[in-house]
Structures are given as structure tokens and as C-alpha cells.
Design brief:
The complex is a heterotrimer of chains A (about 350), B (about 400) and C (about 450).
Chain A: H1 2-31, H2 39-58, E1 60-69, E2 75-81, H3 82-97, H4 99-121, H5 131-153, E3 169-171, H6 172-175, E4 184-186, H7 187-209, H8 211-221, H9 223-228, H10 233-255, H11 265-280, H12 285-302, H13 305-310, H14 314-329
Antiparallel strand pairs in A: 1-2, 3-4
Chain B: H1 8-27, H2 45-68, H3 76-92, H4 97-119, H5 124-143, H6 147-150, E1 156-157, E2 176-177, E3 180-181, E4 185-190, E5 193-198, H7 199-220, H8 222-239, H9 245-269, E6 272-273, H10 280-293, H11 300-314, H12 320-327, H13 332-342, H14 350-364, H15 369-381
Chain C: H1 8-13, E1 43-50, H2 57-74, E2 100-107, H3 112-124, E3 130-133, H4 137-150, E4 153-156, E5 173-175, H5 180-195, E6 200-206, H6 209-224, E7 228-235, H7 243-250, E8 256-260, H8 263-275, E9 282-283, E10 286-287, E11 289-294, H9 297-303, E12 311-314, H10 323-336, H11 342-361, H12 366-373, E13 376-378, E14 386-388, E15 395-396, E16 399-404, E17 415-421, H13 423-426
Parallel strand pairs in C: 1-2, 1-3, 3-4, 4-5, 6-7, 6-8, 8-11, 11-12
Antiparallel strand pairs in C: 9-10, 12-16, 13-14, 14-15, 16-17
Helix pairs in contact in C: 2-11, 3-4, 5-6, 8-9, 11-12
Classes of the chains: A mainly alpha (about 350), B mainly alpha (about 400), C alpha/beta (about 450).
Amino acid sequence: MDAIILQILNGLDKGSAYALIALGLTLIFGTLGVVNFAHGALFMIGAFVAVTVQRLLGLSFEQIDPDKTDFLGNPLKVKMTYVESWFGPEVGGTIVDWSVPVAVIIAIPIMLLVGYVMERGLIKHFYKRPHADQILVTFGLAIVLQELIKYFYGANPIQTPAPSVFKGSFDFGVLVGFDPNAIIYPYWRLVYFAFAAVVLGGVFAFLRYTTFGMVVRAGMADRETVGLLGINIDKRFTIMFGLAAAVAGIAGVMYTPILSPNYHMGMDFLVLSFVVVVVGGMGSLPGAVAAGFLLGILQSFASMNEIKSLIPGIDQVIIYLVAIIILLTRPRGLLGRAGVMED
Amino acid sequence: MKLLGLSAKDTRFLLIVIFLTLATPVLLQPFPENSGLATFNAGYPDLMQRFAIFGIFAIGFNILFGLTGYLSFGHAAFLGVGSYTVVWMYKLLDYNVVWGLPLAVVTSGVFALLIGFVSLRRSGIYFSILTLAFAQMSYNLAYSVLTPITNGETGLQVYRSDAQVLLGANEPTSPHFFGLVMSKSTKLNLGDWQFTFNNGYYFTAIIAIIVFYISLRIFRSPFGLMLRAIKTNQTRLNYTGINTRPYALAAFVISGMYAGLAGGLMAAMDPLAGAERMQWTASGEVVLMVILGGAGTLMGPILGAGFIKYFENIFSKINDQILQGWFAWMPDWLSGLLIEISHFFVGKSWHLTLGLLFMLVVIFLPGGLVEAGQRIARLFKKKPPEDKDPGHHPQPAPHVAE
Amino acid sequence: MSTSNFTRRGLMKTGAATGAGLALPTIFTSAASAFTNEPTGDTVTFGFNVPQTGPYAEEGLDELRAQELAVEHINGMGDGGMLNTFSSKALDGTGILGKKVDFVTGDTQTKTDAARASARSMIEKDGVIMINGGSSSGPAVAVQALCQEAGIISMAGLTHSNDTTGKDRKRNGFRHFFNAYMSGAALGPVLKEVYGTDRRAYHLTADYTWGWTQQESIQASTEAIGWETVNNVLTPVGAGDFSSYITPVLNSGADVLILNHYGGDMVNSLTQAVQFGLRDAEANGKNFEVIVPLYSELMAAGAGENIQGVYGSMNWNWQLQDEGTKAFVKSFGEKYGFPPSGSAHTCYVQTLLYADAVARAGSFNPCAVVEALEDFEFDGMGNGPTLYRAEDHQCFKDVLVMKGAENPTSEYDNLEIVEITPVEQVTYAPDHPMFGGAEASLGECNDGT
């Protein structure tokens, strides 16, 4: 029983990541009608914003401490980060330690800008082009972005630890009546889950309850009519693109303590995020989120030893197997709309 | 002149393709050996074979995607099945490719029939994801659980202990076609130029010409017309009482067999089959080849295949030493600067060049590389463009996502 | 058709429609070379085939640096590095047999197919006589088999699977790097000393051939010291999130986790194991421990402070204090500004060993080189006295047992040497069952004729 609860927690955690990436992708893909192969790259850029912030905060200079000497009797040189020297060791140390949450705040404007530039500079010209051309141009862009990251950050994974407050695990089992240590779960993963819930809720509320969201939803359903009403739908779509980029980016930032970022992580998530979006159904935001959690949880269960010993290698294929079964039983995925990307 | 049931224009076209294919070992070797530009020569057997093999793969994929518009993201699975079939025939019978190649076409055809039958129940992106899912399952299993059949990460190869029941005493111990050993080459030195005429390349090239001819016939046939109709408006066809699925399935199986043949030829040129050739990146690569060259055109896929393979094999090998050779005559600061800039584009960064070129081509040449050829041709002819031959022109796909 | 009978008819038979208007060929090379890519000019070309893209790109680039350095030293530039400490003095810094060494590079992408394609282009286009490098066992085995077919020498780079010199061994292929069996044999006694004999191990293993051979080797050596194996769970390569595999470990009754992962997988699985509190936990009344049998500097850097106190093994480390190591670290460090990695070392040594073997054999003929390398004993290359065993072309030398440093002073000394396991302890019979048993054979040497 405790094993199953643990796998559900694992699944929710994986699902959070899948749902966040798929949410942004489905905003672009299922609503603007653009097949964006660079979406994984946006997730990756977000992660590298975290790396960059960590490095900037860690910038240091050498200072001679007159009171101490090293083993040769010379004055001891100590390294001090600029942040610590400005804010004092206490506050400065905390800021350095909290580099990942700090990066989230910094990533939002950066990713909005990246999304804006991408849409205005490139994607805009491809709305009327065949999907094949969209694939080629966004795939090219994804390669360029990942190679630039590789050029400046190298190909190795980079450690980006969570704030030390979140190190260690939360004894989840005690709360629900298990023995101590039966179900413990790392704090940061719980934070990630909560964070995903907030972001998902925020995006849904934004689209549901604001005038902006209402116009965008109307534009998704019938772009031409909304245009005829004199509403500048293009501008709103640009903002939507920026929003999708921001969601992918901060998902990437928050994921860095779980998965050390490397330059090809975007491509690794790309295929999976497309599967999630399509299983959820084209044009459906709730579908993408539901599919993300469903696939995350099923993947966790498939990784259990008991199931692996029954069907060897099931954890390698479960996502694809579930995708096939769902697409064959439900023609448009879980919650897809008719006529979207069906040609 | 009309040949083999082709129109005069198509005959001319086919003859040009035949000439270019057979003259490849000379045409791709434009720079003298020992010159600084020899790096850009591509007339060596491995790359020429790859041009022909991926040309076949892309020609086949174009029959499905270019004509019907069905975008499969899983064709690499058929490539892998073809390769494994051929290597298994080496292991069981002998190194003569005559057993493995036809069987590779058959097994990949059967495999394509099964996957296609299921996947074609859906259209659009749903179809793409179904094919992707089947192919990724094949790859993941081939890499791990199915290692007894595929030899996993290392790749399937022939061991001494294998049965090889037909192996004769004097038979070559590398792939051959009735004694014509694929790896053997004849070298011709002309002044500073060296040309390599490789058995394997000509074997592949002749097959490529045959399958190109078949694809030409399909493009011009009523069947091809029906496939185009599926792309233009499937719903209308359905309303007129035509069941389009058998046609789409036939196109899927044919393109799967082309992929299987290409995979088989890869194993015929180099007797080892790695699991990565089934990965989604390999499926994606053929999609890119066809789009880059010009989907729906006859020459486009071949150009796209050549373009991508050229960059992969030539640009990745340019290192600092070669760069220094090129820029040696410049002042130090300038050569240093140029080498620094080049680091972005060659050697370990060859991917970046490829990505940039993808973007440039699709932005400035909406019809793919074929359009570049047409523009150049138009410049020379100075005639208004004519659209007599739809097969030579990219078909703008209707955009219906909104 | 043989390459040697170049005639007009032969040309026509190949179907080369070069046309009748072709100018008469001025020179016919009858291609009467004695062996594949026999060097005829005043240079000889090596092929350095390393991953330059993909997850092991950093490792590949470090290998390239070392290979470039080796070429400089062979050609007499720089300070000579290990040539000064190498026990064989056949190389004198004037190239090899009067020829300067030139090299070409290629990208394996850490894929079997791409590695073969790159190697073939080096053989066919650039005329290389030897191929060196690589960072994974699949490509290493594939390239080695290709070199065997083509008739040139393969000097493998970083490849740790038992198969490379086990069931996939080839007469034209050589491996200097250690292997999974040696890791197990070296780690066993150290683990017994620090963790005792009453331990229960849980394996997470990358689901491909290298992972399996390492798991098999480590299981054998830990069971030999009395440990029990609780479970072995195979994980998909590139899984990223290993949480579903890690959570069952704590309640499985195990008190040691062994991670048979490499590269990014190892960085992620170790980081996540630490996050899940495995290293702070207690099981069976003992501290829970994690072991990473195969270490590399770049992985250690990627895993950061998570590796502190974690045991593993290495082929070589720059912190060794012998003369050979010091000479190599000095010339590498002066040229590039940081110490070399283990994979750089093995590629550097392999390049020198090949060059030396040619010089001693007095010929570039691969069969002569094979003869010169088989049962060759040498010293001064950083690993103590070393033997290139004739039966399987595996180098036998001391193995390093490493531990994540508790207080690293820089990013380069985050691993510390715990023990230098003597070669006798890691030696095994050539027909050991983990290495293909009695069936495994090198086959015949091939020089391409």
C-alpha cells in the first residue's frame, strides 16, 4: 500500500512537469494551430535561466582576511560573493541559496520576451504556411537554440540545487496513519507539485475570468469572426505565445533541482509533450493537463518491480502503449475538439 | 523519345537522374586531393552509398507524405526492420545480399501493413502520434528487452559462431551480390584528382534508379491521382462514396517497403544494424529531408536527403587544424577571429549550421530546395514560369487548423 | 573484382559511365599497396573518432584535446609529456618512422551507426591507418569490428563493458581502459573493509549491454565478500526522473544502493537518491550507503556535492603522484589550463602506444603492429607496470578505488583516491565466462589484402 501511494506521488510529480509543458504547447499548437517543435527548447531555456542566475549570484571576488593566515603564514584569501558583500553574509547567503526561486521571478519577463520575439519575428509568418513548413522552421530554431546553449554552457549536466530549507524529506505517511519513514517524500518535489497546481490554476482562471481570456477563447473557436468584430486578435495571440513560453520556462526553472539541466533536455521532452497534448485532445487545455497526470501516474506504476517482472520492459513503452489505446478508443484523445489538426 | 511508358519529358527527366546517379563518384569529387578544399569532397563510398540509401528512404516517404499528406513520424521503424532482416540472413545463411534484401522488403511491408492498418483509423496529428508511438515502442524494446534479437546498443552483427549454413569455402566474408563484394572499389587517379568507383555504391545506385522509376510511375498513375485527391480533400472523396482508406494504406505500405529496402541496403553496405536507426530522431530526419527538398516533388526528397547527409558527414569533420590550413595566409588576428567564428558552425557545432539552414530554406524557399533549382532555371531561361507538370512543383497544403 | 587489376575493361565493368570524352588518365595507381591505407607520403594520418554532439560531448572534446597533445609529442613539439617517462624509447620526437603524424576528427554522436559512418569516412576518404577515441561501449565495439573488416587498427577510448575485450574482442582492436570486471574486483575488498560483510545490495542498472555487464560483475564481487543481492532493477536509458525506481529502495530491506549508471543518468539517479534521503537513512541498523562503480571527473562535477563519500572506481586520475602522470598533467594543464580527465588520459596513452608499436615493429602494417602490441609490457604511462595481454588485447594494470571528496577545494579534486588496487587482484583468465568463455576468440589479423 505504501508503495502504491509513493508511486502515485511520483506520478503526480512527473505529471506536473508533463502537464506544465503540455499546457504551453497546447496553447500554441492546439489553439494557434502552429506545430511548435521549439517548445521543448523553451523549457530548456527556462532551466538555463536558473543556471545563469545561480552563476551570477555565485560571482565572487577574493578578499584578504587580515585576521587569518593560511598554512604558509600568508594572509588568507577568502572568496566572497558580491551578493554577500552587498547585503551582508546573512541576507546575501540566503539569496544565493534561493537562486532557483529567484530565477523564477527573473525567468517570467525573460520568457515573455523570448516568446514575443519568437512569435513576431518568426512564427507570425508561418500561420498561413503548411504544417510541414512550421515543423521545419521550428525544428531548425530548436537546434539553433540548443547549440547556442551548448556553446556557452557545455554539454554536461549542471547541478542547480534547491534552497537548503527544502533539502530532506517530509514524512507524509505519518499524516495518514502509516509508520514513520514508510512514506517520505522530498520537500522540493512537493513544492514542485504545489507550484504546478498554482500555475495551472492561474492560467485557467486567466482564460476563464478575464475579458482578455474570453476574447482569446473566442478567437480560438473562430478567428475570423472575432477579427470581423474589430478586435485585434493577432496582438492577443502574440501575448498568448508569450504566456505559453513563460509557462514552459518557469516549469523548466523549477524542475532544475530534480533534473540537472543539460542542453538536450528540450529535445528529450519534445516527443513526450506532443504525445501528452495529442492524448489529451487537440484544442483542449483540460485535456492536456489530464493527459499529463494520467501518463505520469501510469508511467510510475509501470516502473514498479511487481509490474516489470510480469511484463519486462513495460516501463519503456507504457506511455506509447497508453497513447495508442486512448487514440484508438477515443478518436480525438481525451477531450479533443472536432476539426482541429485532423487534416 | 519515350521509354518504359513515360512521356517524353519524364523520359528526359529519368535519363538526367540516371546520368547524375552514375556520374556521382566524379561529380562529388570536384576538388583535387591535397588541396585545402578537399575536405568538401563527398565522393567516397560511405557517403555516396548514404546519399543513395537515404534517397530511397525519402522517395518512399514522399509517396505517403507528399501525395496523401499523411505525416508519419514512425518510418524509421521500417528502416530498422529492414536492416535487422538482412543481418539475420547473414547470420543464418551467408553474406549474399540476395536473400536478405527481398525479405527485408517483405517483412517491412508486413510490419507497415499492421501499423498502417491501425494508425490510418485516425488522421492528421492523431495519425502522426500513433505512428510515432509504434516506432518508439519498437526502438525502446530493440535497445533493451529485445537484445537477444537485436543485440541492443552494440548493434546486430555477424559472429563466428553463427550458423551461416550456405557459406561456401571461397565465399567472401563481407556482404556481396553473387561474388560482387560491396566494399571493393576501383580507384582512378587523374592528375591531382582521385575518383573512387565502389561496387556497393553502384549496386545501391541501380536499385535507387529502379525505385525512382517506380515512384515516377506511381506519381503519374491514376493511383497517384487518387492519393493526391486524398490530400486535397478527403471528406469530399468520402461523400462521393469512395473509401479512401485502402488507397492510403497502400501508399503507407509502399513507403514502408521503400524504408525497409533502404534499411536493408544500409546493412548490405555495412553489415551491422544499430538500434538508433529506429529512434524518433531518425523518423524525424526523413520528414525533414522531404520537407527541405520539397514535399510532393519528384526530385525534392533526393535533394533533401543529400543535403542533410552532406552536412552531417562533411561539416562535422572540419576541425581547427583544417581551419588553420585555410586561413594560414591571413594575418594572425584575422585568422584567429575567423577560426573563433567558425567554431559556431563546424566541427562540434555542425548541428547549428544545419538548424540555421533549415530555417533559411523554409523562410526564403517555401517550396524547398526544388524551388531554388526552379528559380535558377528560370533565371537562365528568362521565360515566365509554367505549371505544366504538377509533379515538379510543391503542392501548397491547405491550412485548416483554425 | 579486385582493386589491383585496374584495366580499361575493369573500368567498364564497374559501370562507370564516365564518358568517352574523358582525358586519358595520367597516372594509374594500381592500388598495389601492401595493406589498407599504407602511408606513402611524408605523413601518416590518425583518425580521432569521438562524440562531439550528444550527452558525452564534453568527454569527447577532452579526448580530442589529449589526442592533439599526443600528436604534438610524437611530432616533437611541446615538452614531450609521457614520452619522457615511457619505458619504451622507440619514439624520438621526429614522428613515426620518419613520417609526421597528421590527424582527422569525426563525430560519433555516441551512436553505433554514426560512429561507424564517421569511421568509414576516415578510412575511405582520409586514408587513416588507426582509429582512436570514443566514450561508450556500443560504438567502441562497432568501430572495432569495422576496423577489423577494413584492415586497420582500432585503439578504443573510454569503453568499460566486458564485451569489448570479451565476446566482441577482435585481433585488430585494443583496449587500454579498464573494464567492469576490474571495477568489481577492485571495489570488493575496499567495500568489505568500510561497510563490512553483512550488507544487502539493491542494484539500479541502465538497461543496455554495458549496464548489464557492470551489474553482473559488481554482483559477483559483492557476493564474494558475503553481501546479499536484494534486487536488480533495469532502468530505461535517459529516464531523467528516476523517482519511481528509487522510492521502492528504502523499504526493500536493502542497505546499499548500487547505481550502474553512467553520464547524465548517473548524475540524475545519484542526485535524486540523495534527495529522497537515502544517504541519511538507516536500514538494518546501519547507515544506508550508495555506490557508483564507474566514476568519471565530468560526471562527478555534474553530481556536485551529492558524491561526497560515495565509493567508485577509475582507470586513472590526475592526482596520482607517479612521474608519468605528473608529466602528462603538466603538459596538458599548461596547454589547456585544467587537469585532464580519465578518458583524455586513456586516449593519449593509446595514441602513444600505437605510435610506439609502429616504431618498434618498423612498419605500419597492422599485423606487424598487432604483433608488437601483443604481450607488450611497459611502464611510465601513469598506471604502473602494464601488460597488453595477447589473448584478448586488454591492458592489465592497477585500478583506482575512488571516493567523493568530503572537502573539495576546487571543481577538479572532488574525487579522492582511496586505494590503488594492484593488478594481480583484478586479473582474470582470458576465457572467463563474463568475457565470452572459451568461445571468444580474436580471430585472424586483417591488413586489408
